[in-house]
C-alpha cells in the first residue's frame, strides 16, 4: 500500500488521459497567442540585433554583450521553438516531431529562462562594480564580463545536457501530444529551477539595491564611488531604468511558471476538477515562453539604444523643433544622465 501511495505522488507515475487535459479545449486560442506573440518577438528582437550589429561602440561595450546574448536567445525561441510547439499542437505526430517537441520544451523551460536570468544577474553585477570601483570600470571590466558570460552560459548548457542524459525521460501521454519531457528525480528538477530562476533573480535584486545604495550613500560611508569621483553628482545619477524593468519582466514572466512547475512536482493534477488552476497554468506558460516580445522594448529605455536606432537608414527622418524641445524637457531623459553604458 505504501509503495502505491508513493508512486501516485511521483510526477512520472501517472500518465494523463485526454479527458484530464482540459486546456486542450482552448488549444487553438493558446496556439494563436503563441503565433502572434512569436511574430512580435521576432520583430522586436531583430530590431535590437540590427541596432547592436550596426553600432561599433555597442559591440565593444560589455553591457551590450549581455543584451546581445539575451536577444539572440529570445529570438531563437520566437523563430524556432515556439513555432515548433504550435506545429505539434495542431497535428504533427511523427517521431521527428516528438524529438523536436522534447528539445523545444527543454529549451523554453530551462535553457532560455536560465540564460535570460543569468544575463540579468551579470548586468546587475556589472552595474554594481562600475558604480563602486573605478579600477574595475577602467581596466578589468571587459575581461571580467567576458569570462563570467562564457562561464555562465557554458556551465548552464553542460549542466542541462548532463542532467537530461542521466535523469531525463520521454513519455507518451496521449494522442494529441505524442511525447513529454521530464526528469525522473524531483530533487534534480528543484535544483534546476533554483539554479535557472530563483538564484539569479534574487542575486539581481540584491546587486541592484547595493548599486543604488553605493551610488547615493557612498561618500557618507567613505566608499570610492567611481562615477561620483568622475564628476557625476548623486542627485543627477539614477539607477539604470532598463535593468529595473528587465528584472520586473523576468520576475513576472518566469517566477509564476516556476511556481506552477513546483505544484506539478508536488502531485497536483491539472484536470477538469481544477479548471481555474489549469487556466492559470496555461497563462503562466504563455508568459514564460513569450517574454521575448516584451524584453526587447526594455533596451530602448536607454538613450544609447534609441540614438543607435535613429541612425538606421530605415528610421532616419528630419528632426523638427518640437522634437528637440520634447527631448530636452522630458523627465524620461533624467535616466540618460546615468553614464553607465559609456
SSE blueprint and pairings:
Blueprint: H1 2-9, H2 27-54, H3 56-59, H4 62-89, H5 95-132, H6 134-167, E1 168-171, E2 180-183, H7 186-217, H8 226-229, H9 241-265, H10 275-289, H11 295-299, H12 303-310, H13 321-329
Antiparallel strand pairs: 1-2
Brief description of this entry?
The protein has helices at 2-9, 27-54, 56-59, 62-89, 95-132, 134-167, 186-217, 226-229, 241-265, 275-289, 295-299, 303-310, 321-329, and strands at 168-171, 180-183. The protein has 342 residues and is mostly helical.
Describe this structure in words.
With 342 residues, this protein is mainly α. It has a single domain (2-337), classed as Rhodopsin 7-helix transmembrane proteins (Rhopdopsin 7-helix transmembrane proteins, Up-down Bundle), CATH 1.20.1070.10. It is built from 13 helices and two strands. The chain has helices spanning 2-9, 27-54, 56-59, 62-89, 95-132, 134-167, 186-217, 226-229, 241-265, 275-289, 295-299, 303-310, 321-329; strands at residues 168-171, 180-183. Strands 1-2 form a two-stranded antiparallel ribbon. A hairpin with an 8-residue loop joins strand 1 and strand 2 (180-183). Helix 5 (95-132) crosses helix 9 and helix 7 packs antiparallel against helix 9 (241-265). This is G-protein coupled receptors family 1 profile domain-containing protein. It is a multi-pass membrane protein. GO terms for molecular function: G protein-coupled receptor activity. Residues 44-299 form the G-protein coupled receptors family 1 profile domain.
Amino acid at each position: 500500500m505504501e509503495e502505491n501511495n508513493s508512486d501516485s505522488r511521483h510526477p512520472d507515475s501517472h500518465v494523463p488521459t485526454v479527458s484530464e487535459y482540459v486546456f486542450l479545449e482552448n488549444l487553438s486560442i493558446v496556439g494563436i497567442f503563441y503565433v502572434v506573440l512569436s511574430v512580435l518577438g521576432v520583430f522586436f528582437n531583430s530590431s535590437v540585433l540590427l541596432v547592436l550589429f550596426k553600432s561599433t561602440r555597442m559591440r565593444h561595450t560589455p553591457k551590450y554583450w549581455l543584451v546581445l546574448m539575451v536577444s539572440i536567445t529570445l529570438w531563437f525561441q520566437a523563430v524556432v521553438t515556439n513555432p515548433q510547439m504550435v506545429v505539434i499542437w495542431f497535428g504533427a505526430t511523427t517521431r521527428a516531431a516528438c524529438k523536436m517537441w522534447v528539445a523545444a520544451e527543454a529549451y523554453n523551460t530551462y535553457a532560455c529562462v536560465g540564460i535570460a536570468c543569468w544575463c540579468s544577474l551579470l548586468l546587475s553585477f556589472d552595474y554594481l562594480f562600475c558604480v563602486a570601483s573605478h579600477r574595475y570600470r577602467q581596466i578589468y571590466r571587459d575581461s571580467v564580463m567576458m569570462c563570467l558570460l562564457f562561464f555562465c552560459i557554458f556551465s548552464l548548457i553542460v549542466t542541462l545536457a548532463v542532467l537530461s542524459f542521466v535523469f531525463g525521460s520521454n513519455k507518451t501521454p496521449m494522442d494529441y501530444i505524442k511525447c513529454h519531457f521530464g526528469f525522473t528525480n524531483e530533487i534534480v528538477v528543484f535544483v534546476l529551477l533554483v539554479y535557472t530562476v530563483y538564484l539569479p533573480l534574487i542575486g539581481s535584486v540584491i546587486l541592484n539595491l547595493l548599486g543604488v545604495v553605493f551610488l547615493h550613500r557612498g561618500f557618507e560611508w567613505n566608499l570610492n564611488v567611481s562615477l561620483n569621483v568622475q564628476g557625476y553628482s548623486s542627485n543627477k545619477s539614477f539607477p539604470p531604468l532598463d535593468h529595473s524593468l528587465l528584472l520586473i519582466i523576468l520576475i513576472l514572466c518566469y517566477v509564476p511558471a516556476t511556481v506552477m512547475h513546483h505544484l506539478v512536482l508536488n502531485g497536483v493534477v491539472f484536470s477538469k476538477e481544477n479548471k481555474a488552476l489549469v487556466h492559470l497554468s496555461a497563462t503562466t506558460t504563455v508568459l514564460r515562453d513569450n517574454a521575448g516580445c516584451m524584453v526587447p522594448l526594455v533596451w530602448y529605455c536607454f538613450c544609447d539604444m534609441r540614438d543607435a536606432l535613429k541612425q538606421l537608414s530605415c528610421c532616419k527622418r528630419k528632426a523638427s523643433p518640437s522634437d528637440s524641445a520634447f527631448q530636452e524637457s522630458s523627465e524620461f531623459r533624467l535616466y540618460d544622465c546615468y553614464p553607465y553604458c559609456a
